[in-house]
Every structure is written in structure tokens, then in C-alpha cells.
Recover the amino acids of this structure.
DNA sequence: GCCGATTTGTCCGTATGTATC
DNA sequence: CGATACATACGGACAAATCGG
């Protein structure tokens, strides 16, 4: 929990934007004004503003000011966005989560798994297959590979609750960067066995490689979502091109 | 085209990472070293590094150093990532693009369109429906709504070539922020008419709201991709939680 | 069109804190 | 413990874009 000044300003402005203290399309107070309000330096204010910009909340315009471009997005389905665990996502989406562990085994990365997951060949791994329920309905099928060296002592009981909580609270490991790929794939036999597909013949699939705070990849996951309850959100800011 | 110092350092380091001058998992030279190499201030080096971090190229570790975590991702399908036009994406994916305009009309945003697109009610719009080919195969069906006020003089001929090029080169308007939502939807009659669906009954759908550099939304687009030629990539960096 | 005031963008140097080794 | 490395913060300077008179 950062108690940095810029983080305080960031949260404060974010809250004011969400609660429409600053209306949509209006300009925020100028940097000079914010400096006086918060009694800090210009760099500190600018850092808070730049984080809001990368969240898609504001947009800076040289010579003009900083405009509020925040629009709340309606969530009609289970929404995926930043890095968070199934548990965290469920809570944010106001749904009741439940997890059933279908498989829990140990294995070594062979040629095929190594190429797919990014782990080096021969690395000892945990493989976990889990069915995720939301409000009692099975909606997601997860295939996880964890690097045993960085996730020692993993058990089916932990996998049933929350691996991320185990990682962060018990092992003191923290999750930092995640590279994700979203595709649409055909349903498999396993999908149809566990999920009610309603004659859909596709799945929304997110594969991700996750790195800890030492920059080491400790996880590879394939998350297969029932298409009618899936939504992925993203903000992209274009850089001035070359 | 920015000729800022931090941008030069950013590009230089990025190139060195991609060409494995810095190997995967190795530490980059320390900030102090980089300051001397580039003959600039610490803030400038740090800005370049922080952009690389948000690209998923490196990860900073307090007290340890900055690790290269760049892994090239294989592209087995048409890959979507940052903000770019169909033309730009096609070139990056080494494919030959072609566009056929199916519809080109003017209309005013009614209740329904306003709610869906985010444009205010009664706003004059262009509506364009386009079929996108890659290497001669129709793969994407685009439905665009442009705010007429900000995109004056749009014609079917421009829509057939590149609307973005028209916006940037002719109108001097620049694209800045884009909010996107990825979902999977059932095929429609129109999809099946124009795309060879191979018994797939789903589409990968990206809807986006795009803002110009004044922070005004000028575009709403729904882009429907054939699922077997679609891939969306994303890097997410976790913030230290509250 | 010019000029000055305002606002954001870039860059510098320095100081202090915190984590790692 | 000291040395090294990144994190935060300050204050100042000048540039670039915008806007109003």
C-alpha cells in the first residue's frame, strides 16, 4: 500500500472524476492550481495526472489543459481487465465465486509444454485444472502451470481457495507483469463436459504469462470462458508516431 | 515525431532489447551507467525505462536493477494490439489488405444509437459498413460511426482507402485515446453473407470509442472478426494495491 | 497578425528514503 | 555496516502550444 503523495493525489482526483465533481468533457484545475491545493511540487501533480491518463480517465492537451474523458462502461458480463485473481474479479463484478479443482498434478516441462508456456525444458511444474463458478453456474475452465520452484508447497486445498492469496500472503511473492493473448477457439470435449454451452461452438480464451517482482515467469495460464459471459476491456493511448 | 531525449533513449534501449544486445532475464545497465552513456539527467533515463516497463519490455526492482523480460510473441493470426488502423495492422502482420465499402450513409444519432455509441442524441453521423480482406480473404466486417462535425467531407472513396490517413494527413486531426471492449457474439445474417464462417457460429467482436487530441470522441466502431484469424494482445502491469 | 499570459511538455540538479547485496 | 540501485519529491529553467486582447 503506497503512501506516496502522487498516489494520494491520483486517488483523490480519480474519485472526483468518478463522482462527477469534475463533469465529463470539462477541464480539470490547471497544474498550477493543483500544486497549490495539494501543497506539493509540479512533478508530483504531473505524475498523478499521467497515471489517470493511462487509465483513460483524462487527456492532457498542451496549451489548453487536462480534459476529463471518463465514461463509466456498462458491464453486462464477467469483465476482465487488469491483473487480478478470479476471486478479485468476482468481487468487482458483484458475483459469488466458487472453484472446483478437477486435476492437480506435478510434471516436468517437455518439448511441447515448454514451447507453449515459455518455461524452460525440464522445469518442474504444477499443473492445475479448475472449474470456476459464478453465482452457481460453471463459466470458466482454467488450466494453470506454476513453476514449482517459485510456488513451493502448493496443494489442491490452496488451489480451491486462491493461489494468488497464497503467493502474496504466505510466500510474500508479488505479481507484477502479465502478458496476455485473447483468442476464440473451438469448444473441446472437456469444455462441453463441464460447461453448459447452449449450442455455442466457441470459447473465449485468454492465455497469460505472469511474472513476479523479480521478473521471473512463475505462471502460465489458459482461461477458457463461456462466450456469453465474457468481456475484456482495454484502454489504449497512442504515442506520437515516428 | 518526437525528438525528445527520453524518446531517443527509449527507442535505443528497445532496439537493443529486441536484438538481444541485452539477453532475456539479464539486468540492464544501472540508471547511473545509462546517465553517463547518454549524457543526460536521471529523470530522463527513468522516463525511458518507465515507458519500456509499460510496454512489458523490462521490470524495475528496487535495490536490484532493471530486468529484461521481453519475449517475442508468435503471431499465428491477425494480431490486434495498440491503436492502429486496419492498414497499419495489415502491414505489421505482413499481409495484403483490401477494403470493400458495403454501405455509406449519413444519419442522426437516435436514442438507440446514442446509447450504444456514446454520441449525444441528434448528433449528425456518418455510418460506414466495410468488408476487410487479408490476402484476398474476407475476414473482418466493420461498422463505423463517425462524428460528422469532426470528420467533414468523408466519402466512400476515402472509406475504401484509409479513413485514419484522411483524418491525420488531410484534416490534421490526431487520434489519442481508445477505449475497447472485446466480446464473443453469435454470427449474424450479415456476417454469414460476407464471410466464410466454416460452421463457426461465433465472431470475435471489438467495439471501440476513439478520442481525438482535444479529448472529443469522434468515432465508434464495431469490428467483427472471423474467430479463426483473430488474436488480441495486451500487457498489464499490476499496481501495488491499496 | 502580434504580444503577453496561461498551460502543458521536456529537462536538469539535488536531496532523501528504501531495498538489496 | 557500507555501497549500490531504484523510488519519491522538490525547485527551477526553458520550450511549445493555446488563447484573448
Amino acid at each position: 500500500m503506497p503512501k506516496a503523495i502522487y498516489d494520494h493525489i491520483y486517488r483523490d482526483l480519480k474519485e472526483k472524476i468518478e463522482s462527477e465533481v469534475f463533469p465529463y468533457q470539462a477541464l480539470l484545475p490547471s497544474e498550477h492550481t493543483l500544486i497549490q491545493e495539494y501543497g506539493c511540487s509540479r512533478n508530483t501533480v504531473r505524475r498523478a495526472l499521467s497515471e489517470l491518463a493511462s487509465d483513460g480517465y483524462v487527456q492532457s492537451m498542451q496549451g489548453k489543459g487536462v480534459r476529463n474523458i471518463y465514461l463509466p462502461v456498462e458491464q453486462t458480463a464477467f469483465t476482465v481487465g487488469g491483473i487480478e485473481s478470479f476471486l478479485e474479479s468476482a468481487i468487482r463484478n458483484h458475483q459469488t465465486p466458487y472453484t472446483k479443482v478437477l486435476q492437480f498434478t506435478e510434471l516436468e516441462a517437455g518439448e511441447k509444454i515448454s514451447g507453449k508456456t515459455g518455461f524452460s525444458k525440464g522445469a518442474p511444474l504444477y499443473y492445475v485444472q479448475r472449474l470456476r463458478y459464478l453465482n452457481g453456474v460453471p463459466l470458466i475452465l482454467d488450466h494453470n502451470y506454476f513453476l514449482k520452484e517459485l510456488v513451493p508447497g502448493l496443494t489442491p486445498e490452496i488451489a480451491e481457495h486462491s493461489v494468488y492469496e497464497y503467493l502474496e500472503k504466505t510466500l510474500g511473492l508479488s505479481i507484477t507483469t502479465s502478458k496476455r493473448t485473447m483468442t476464440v477457439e473451438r469448444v473441446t470435449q472437456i469444455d462441453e463436459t463441464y460447461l453448459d454451452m447452449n449450442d455455442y461452438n466457441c470459447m473465449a480464451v485468454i492465455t497469460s504469462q505472469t511474472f513476479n517482482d523479480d521478473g521471473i515467469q512463475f505462471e502460465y495460464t489458459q482461461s477458457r470462458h463461456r462466450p456469453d459471459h465474457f468481456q475484456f476491456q482495454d484502454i489504449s493511448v497512442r504515442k506520437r508516431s515516428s
Observations:
- Strands of chain B lie at 58-61, 65-68, 79-80, 97-108, 124-134, 137-147, 175-186, 202-212, 217-225, 231-237.
